[in-house]
Amino acid sequence: MVFQLVHGRLTGVDVVSIASPPTILALFGLLQALPGDPEEQAKAWADRLASRVMKSEAAQSRRLLGGDVKRINLVYGLVHEARDVESAPAGGSLDASRVLDIVSYYCAVSPRRLVVTGAAGSGKTVLALRLMLGLLKVRQPGDPVPVRFSLSGWDAEKEEFREFAVRQLMLIHQCARQRAETLFDGHRVLPVLDGLDEMDPTLAGSGGFASALAPRACKALEKLNDEQQDDDAAPLILTCRSSHYDALIREGRLRDAARISIAPVSAAQACAYLTARFSDGGVRVQSRWRRVVDELQARPQGPLAQALSTPWRLTLAATAYRNRASDPGELVDLGGPSAVNEHLLARYVNAATRSTRGRGYTAPEVHRWLHRLARGLERQAGSPHTDLVLHELWRTTRWWQVLLTDAVLTGLLACLLLPLCLIVSSPQALFVLIGAGALFCVFGALLSYDVGPPARVAWSNLRSPSKVLRLVAEIALGLVWGALAAVLLGLGIAVLGPAIGIRPGFGSQYVVHRAMVFGLAAGLAFGLVSGIRNAIASEQTSAADPRLAVREDIAFGAAVGLGSGVAGGLVSATTFGVSEGFVYGLCGGLLAGFASAFAAGATGGRVGLRYLAFLLCSVGRLPLRLGLFMDWAYDAGLMRLSGSAYQFRHRELQRWLADHPYPVDGS
Q: I need a surface site. Which of 299, 378, 381, 625 has the fewest CB within 10 A?
């Protein structure tokens, strides 16, 4: 159509007909009809979220168990402190035996608000994971999706719970804001809130415990008590250390909730676990573990039994002494539980590194890198954080250095267009255009402190008939708006032409014609860019691959930038000629697209470039291929996953690494 108008084969009447009200209304109706029924769409979103959560949390559960051939059957009991719970069984265990399993227990609680407490490392997260997976297995269409949120990232004094939950769905599970808000507001998400005791800074010398007057935790409980679903308290699951929750009860507790407490691992359970994990081929434990087992059996309440009374400590011991040449019997001679725990933590990174193949990392450099990451989390503003989201790691270092590097990278990206100056007759003008665009990109990046959630790209959408139909409809709608702009430009020049020196005649007709061509081409270009952006956009990213978010954001920004460049070339070609006009338009469009994507972050690309700037600023302190290292640490059992966020295997490990920049002698 633009081709016909350029060559005089399309009249102004035809342009007016394109921009007629019936055409606009028809296209708007088509675009509005494409999304489908909102209720069915929300159900489909919830089903897809459930599938992603099941996949990621099942992998996380397997990773937490590691190579264990025997799982410790955690036992828990109801704490009789809540008088306003309608019903709650007396207790149960992780797996069904003679008592209720955790899923049956939760389904018997009314209202469905559960607080899981226990000692540090007692298995609260494992219990919550098993409950989530069990609920997902029996989930029916329309049921809420259990989603785990780390409470350490919530400043309850400044942020409402709804905003926190929506932000986490966007950041961790890669939902678009509209989708996250729809799921939360429609009660299609069952919050599983992990780590109430990690919301506030810890007290010095307290072993990692937060203050009993923890303001954020108290405020969080206050806001959670206000959450309602219909006329009842909104369902949720909350985990917290027993001692911390006991202290918080003086200020307030989670109302209408049943509280269970996980019992310590008994000496008999610890012996059974070690025997199954390190069997001599029969029913006896390996000889190198015999001294430990004998001590546990002889003194079931002794210091070693207390030190190994949680699943986390047993995992530490099993990993630290996985090597057959090591001697776990030395644990018996260490004295109290704190000495045993310090000794196991000092050996853990070294043992995990030596037993994990694949990247050739050495134990000292792994320890140093993990220390940097842990230290960055502990030093973040407010309470210490636990989530390591790749594209948010720049906040853990010198932000101004990352911002400057980001601006330089954005400017250099624009300068990649300089070779185009060699193919035009007036390179000076193009050089000025590119230079001005580069400066605009630099200043845009400097002013863009915050970066939004990463854009997701799904090329497979182009195989979807509905997406292709939407692409065609948006291009057509852009053409309609362009035709409307062309009519307005033509009328404006025709009316105001004499005032600006354009006299009636052939010259004025040429100017009006070119103005209408420009408006029509600009509308078509706008529709093309908007259509490409919406066609390849995806509101989901596999939570099992955190690196995918960064890669897709860069790909999305590049795709939109290139589309903008082609559209700009089209507009310029229709106005200034096909040859050099296209080159100028291509440069202008690419600069506009890059500025929009990589400088302002309006269309994706900002997140990926900020992450690259962070890596360049961390050379020598962190591995350049940080994503691969994080994946390796996950395989080694040093990290765990929560959606698309990495976390240290245990909060205790994070604190220990933050306080120890170098491996401890003898580890």
A: 381
